[in-house]
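seq/struct pair 1
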Amino acid sequence: MKTLDSLDWIFIAVYFTVLVGIAVWIIKKKKSNTEDYFLAGRNVGWFVVGASIFASNIGSEHVVGLAGAGAGDKLPMLIYEIHAWLVLMLGWVFLPFYARSGVFTMPEFLEKRFDARSRWVLSVFSIIAYVLTKISVTIYAGGVVVSALLGIDFWTGAIATVVLTGLYTVLGGMRAVVYTETLQAIVLVIGAAALTIIGYNHVGGWSEIKATVGPEYLNMWRPATDPDFPWPSLLISSTIVGIWYWCTDQYIVQRALTAKNIKEGRRGTIFGALLKLLPVFLFLIPGIIALTLKMKGELHWNSPDEAFPVLMSNLLPSGLRGLVAAGLLAALMSSLASVFNSCSTLFTVDIYKKLRPNTPEKKLVRTGQIATIITVIIGIIWIPIMANISGVLYEYLQKVQTYVAPPIAAVFLLGIFYKRINGIGALVTLVLGLFVGFLRLGLELAKESMNVDGFFYKMADMNYLTFGAWFFLGCVILAVGISLVTAAPSKEKVINLTFGTLTDEAKSKNKGSYGIFDVVLSIIILVIVAGIMLFFNGK
């Protein structure tokens, strides 16, 4: 890999100067109340909402891992990148219920729809899951990227980035996060687009890529008998993970809740869905280009996760290389800032405020800041553990999410679409479902030492996508079954919180929150998603 030169460093310095300027400006303007600190005063426009959703999603593990999937014969993982239709689902289906209920967090919504027990389970679990997956994986991938790009020690790069990101997240809260993320999204898109175009031209176009790697390599739809990516299981499990991640997870939904009204929030999700189509072209295709150049003997890397940084350092000219490096740093920082703020919100609103309901607003904000600092420290402690991750990072992340998503997705989907689901059904599904998810993860790690004929070995050895599909079905049956044999939920637990109980006023407000432009753009996005699915069919 080539090292960065003076012009590259100038670009990186300019980026950080602008970023710090925005953060300082926001910190000076912020107010000392929870709505401003955790939801940016609920006064954000659609452009910032959409850019923030995109920037939150695209972390350094995403850039590194998705390019690695393209370079390492993992093209079926592309299906997670055409979830733009699920981002639309957040805006059109879920957001109106969240906004009407006036909640800060997803566990808070579960309390309104079910009871306080479901809120506690989801709050505690979400914080643990963020530390084990999002924070640790993002920091690990970020350390790899920073040390490779800047030529510094892994630990120095990782800790410096975590501390800097944590600083403006603690001081500025959600408002600082969403506005800095807007800048980061712009820098990342420009930088990665430049790399894709230059790499595409350098390799000789799509026909040359296809001729080198072979048409079958470019097929995202493997047979149902494929041991790694059977297409029915891939389609079902990726959709379940997508519903959980895009429509019910605090990490993403919190961005939509910052909007000034449902109309701006929905438009933000439509814009976010449009941006969500970009990673296919910005990260996956560069991975395929890197593989093509490696097969031609023009590039060399040891692990598929190195494909993007190596391609960037070898193909881009001075200055532009610095811009893309800044974009990668932006991806790392935006993801970290998002998860730091989400952890802080969940702890303060769902745990601390529930235990001490009379706490003044200023003290709640201070509690949120302390929670962010603790999250930063835990993230740093996790770095050496994550340094032992092997294989393609992106696939590792999707595996863990496949075990986490089914019970949560089942409870939220049924809670909104089926008014008969009650608090007991939701609670048992969450507790038992999350136990089974962690059991599968533990069994998978211990598989080598188990009896190959035993039940637990078979459970651990089942394809993770197939497991996810059956797991979700089991969660749905459990939630419905328990709810039907216990008392129906009270009227206040369902009115305006499910589709079957919307009042005329709520229906009227919802109809007035969108126009023909919103509908047409949403349809165009769905057509593009279908087009990408058909294009990558190996023919």
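seq/struct pair 2
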Amino acid sequence: MTYITSSERHGKAHVHPVAVVGAGPVGMTLALDLALRGTRVLLLDTSATTTTNPRCNTTNARSMEYFRRLGLAGRIRRAGLPGDHATDVVYCTSMTGHELTRFEFSSSDEVLDGSAAEFDDWPTPEPQHRISQIYLEPVLDSACRDSGRIDVRRGHSVESVRDDGDAAVLSVRTGSGEQYEVAARYVVGCDGGASTVRRMIGAVLEGDGEVSERRHSVQFRSPSLAGMLGDRPGWMYWWYGRQFRGSLIRLDGGSLFLCHARVPEGVDPDSVDTDVMLDDAIGRRLDDIDTVGVVRWTARRLVADRFRDGRILLAGDAAHLWLPLGGFGMNTGIGDAMALSWRLHAVLSGWAGERVFDDYEGERRSVGEATSRAALKIDSDMQEIARDPALHEPGPLGASLRRQAGARIEQIDRKQWYSQGVQFGAKYSGTPGIDGEQDGDAAIASIGDYVPSVVAGARLPHHWRPGGDSLFDQVGDQFTLLRIGAGAPAAGPFAAAAAAAGIPLAVLDIDEPVDPAIYGDATMVLVRPDQVVAWSGPTAPADPGAVFSRLLGLATAMPVRHSA
């Protein structure tokens, strides 16, 4: 076995600006955004290929907004389900049984041509998209390999990482057994729930180790089932069987499916017969089922006690784990990536101090806590629905119970599919990275309701600009100063302060009318690179330089520049 040092493999003085451990959706998104900003990235993953495990099946609207900025939204919408496949969520006694209710959603083609009804209901240029992780990851992987700034190394397992003061050093083993060390200014662990990086920094997952029934999941193929789903097949089916209950997802719009079942309390998950469970979900025995894989897992609600130790940081499932409802898990991780990428680039480029990493931990840890509780609430609210065995019976009693169950589902579970509060409504506060009232941790006021605002800490609200562009299309990759209305103060003092500190700043004049309920008396809005409002006000601040110093941790000293 050959041990190759970083100096032998990469040249004596070579240190990567950023090493990302884990090339799932979170790690690849982080790498892509860093590359877009001009920072080179080493991306390492144990697996030789993208995932075959369809863990997450929704890319939410906030993530799609970020992918829009990365130039990938269209490619992602064209992957997975056929473009004309509706993405309805159907509730039923079984796949071939009684339908209880459904939530109707548009196809990808309708979103792409602008005709989707979601554009009337969702305050975003990019409505949420139904795509399995097995189809999302190849799109991201291809983009990483094409970027020119990302060194993708699949089949390379990180066995340890340590902070040596001026760099972090990773010990890596290839699939053939070769070992080497590599150094990076910063390391980000995006390596999942069993994270090696989290273990290396001594971070601990805290919360609830088991919050609901255990799950029995089966990925399978069945051409005959695909032909039984009617003229408007759904994307996801929530089924309430005689023995089990769970969900079933169409992964490719054809014969490939994923079925999750709750294991009843008191039943050993290992004793569950997969064929019996699928019979219950489908409503009959099918002879052409080809099982691709079976996974048994436990629902948890866990958040790491810290996201950082010196040059080593955590994001995604390495930092938080919870029930995969509403797509909250992967998408929260993508939010982590976008909140961290600009900070890494800023520190490496010399226009932010390392305190911004503490801001990242404070902001994203509190979002993780709030989002995990939102997922748990969705699960607990649905626990008692459709429990009566008579739900399956013919006759007036069964029909009445099914109507009642459908009405109750429409009332209770709507928030899972219209989770605008979770997707858009988290408001950061309590860190110096937000120049506004410091009133505690990030809050999600409601799972289903979003109130747009330009208060510091809020997501910048979207609106369509004259000419058809989204405001998001014109906000810069770095800081952007919005001047609202013809009477807005001059941008000169802000621009001069940014230039003096080396901070990239774009200025965007908003001449069209804006909603006073959203903007209030604000005439200037300073937007962070992650499309979060950093500061807003009716007049210019007396000292814009002091604002930047507070936001970016520059109050005491400028950081040392490193090559990005």
